[in-house]
Amino acid sequence: xxxxxxxxxxxxxxxxxxxVDGDKHYPEDLEDEVHADGEIWSRAxxxxxxxxxxxxxxxxxxxxxxxxxxxxxPELAASTVNAAQRLYGSSVATSVQRAFEARGIL
Length: 106
Description:
By secondary structure, this protein is mostly helical. It has one domain. It has helices at 34-52, 54-64, 73-88, 90-102. Helix 1 (34-52) packs across helix 2 (54-64), helix 1 (34-52) packs antiparallel against helix 4 and helix 2 packs across helix 3. The chain is globular.
């Protein structure tokens, strides 16, 4: 993501600000570094987008973040699944749940 913004500090092509196509898994791949650990979360969100479409994904992901002052990944994932259920029903919520399960977050 963000090829345009990362050309000055990456030498590989494609340049990227944050990888969303990796296979990092929670919790064993945590590095206690927000950008590295964010790749786990970002991959789950990317998979949700692929499964339910960009507009639905954007809406349910944002909705899942309200009233979450300092969540863990599993807490935020559960809230996101609940938002999917509330907004779009069981089929979409199941797709969201599976994306988080694939990354080990749920």
